[in-house]
# Entry
Amino acid sequence: MPSVRRMILGHVMSGLCTKMNRTKKLEGDLLETPMKRCLSTFDITLLGVGHMVGAGIYVLTGAVAHNTAGPGVILSFLFAGVASLLAALCYAEFGARVPKAGSAYVYTYVSIGEFWAFVIGWNIILEHMIGAASVARAWSGYVDSLAGGSISNYTRHMMHGYTMGEPLGNFPDLLAGGLCLAYAMLLALGVKCSATVNSLLTIVNLCVMALVIGLGISYANMSNWSNENGGFLPYGFSGVLAGAATCFYAFVGFDSIATSGEEARDPGYSIPRATIISMAIVTIGYVMVGAALTLVVPYWNINPTAALPEAFSSRGIPWAKYVISVGALCGMTTTLFGSLFSLPRTMYAMANDGLLFGFLGHISERTQVPVLNLAISGTFSALIALLFDLQHLVEFMSIGTFLAYTIVSASVIILRYRPEKKTPPPSNVGTPSSLASPPTESADSNSDCNSVTSAEPELLCPGEGAAKLKPRYAWMTNVLGNCKPQNTVDACVMIYTLGCVALCALIILISHTSTTSWSFRDYFIVANVALLMIGSLLIIGAHQQNCSTGKFRVPMVPLVPALSILFNVGLMFHLSLLTWLRFLVWMIVGMLIYFLYGIHYSKEAVSPNSYSILMATSEAGRGARWGATLRVNQKTDKVPILNDDDLVR
# Structure
């Protein structure tokens, strides 16, 4: 009896794992979509620039320079920009190969599996929802600053001195909530109309940035960087790294470029170029503006909430305050546009795959945008902006972003060494079923052991040598044994990622516990973890990659994605414990949705070649009858009957 229970439990667990690991099948014309393909490379580039150049440059620059890095904010933005560029290149490759809405969610679904895809998609929803709310809060604060605090004073008066307390903001922000709703309604008019408005506001914003850089060069005072005033790194290099973790928030908008995959005219051409161009513009802009700000006024005199207007106003240029404020409002508006543009499309992609509720997959026939998703996302973003404080929102958003970037980077390595499969047309000849190993409840057509079509030959592209050792590394077969090359690569990616987690944790732990310098034991442990990571990359690099498809590919794989994984994991360790606890609550809600709904209604759950029957009945006084999952013979459509004795055997 216990053996039967173990057998049934094993089948249940096997079925659950099969469902969680099934991958999305891309069939038919990938360019076919109910959305309107009307965005050019120029539109998509300005969409990315507009999403990234907003609250980050007008609010974050001053806050990081004043509180965290001093003039070293330049290096903070540079490091954050490089780390973001590594992840952006990975997004660009996927955007060219998989021109679908959903960004990192779709990429993970195609390469790793359904469970991790849901985790990423659920976190992207969090990222864009909080991103929209945080920018709306910053926009409201900027307007309040220009109005001399009259808006906040009126709110305090209406609250009669009451405050909401942690983790909420002190007072509800009605202006921020209303802004989210207003912009959601603008996006509902259609993608081309809203993209035109976004492009105009982004151009105004870039002109204001150029003005700030020019004025900064004209009024620069190099003594602000001298040792007498604390030097270039008054908070040390650790302050630069802490600032980089915060500045990473300024670059999170580039994934909105990938999200536009179903509305780009030529996604294979536009998405990679728009990604690289926008990242270059934004990184140079942030570095130059950070230099201008810290050269115009000493870092300790910077106003963290309205840094640029107050800086030039203190140097006797009052007109610059109003010009910069116009640019700031335009920039933050385009950032809000980017978040509210990406959020409903991610919800649409997940609902279209069956992982979220079906009504979220509706597209308006008139405007060809997911209007219902816009209404829902705009309402929730407005509610968050109304209640929560800006600082808590920024930290909470970063953790989901880092996780998404990490998994997308790992997915690039996995897919680069996975053979490109071209499945031939299905044969009309039936395939006899076997009862030797009963399939699980929902057989995945991508699984070699469960799929009827897995026995069909796979046609690889000409000259394909992927997932095989390069000739000069043939000696590794003695080390790797009988492991399949693809399984070896997947295992090495997992080992490397876990090694990044262990390395970052060890460095932080040793740095906080060692009162003096590191001991020999500390160096030895860290060196062994580093060697394990390097060894994993060397084994991956010893395999041949799949052949080029003529589309954009990340250079220097696996090195570039591996560095992206390391940087993102390292930045995740700089987030506070409270942020991790909030993230855990969000993930619990997501897991309830996935295991109670998504895993059962996923469109990848149904295999065209087989279906399952689960028999389980019980009779009082006679014990339980055990169920079995049986495959139907396609020729006869007869289901063999198994009795209890057969199951025990």
Observations:
- Residues 318-352 form the longest helix (35 residues).
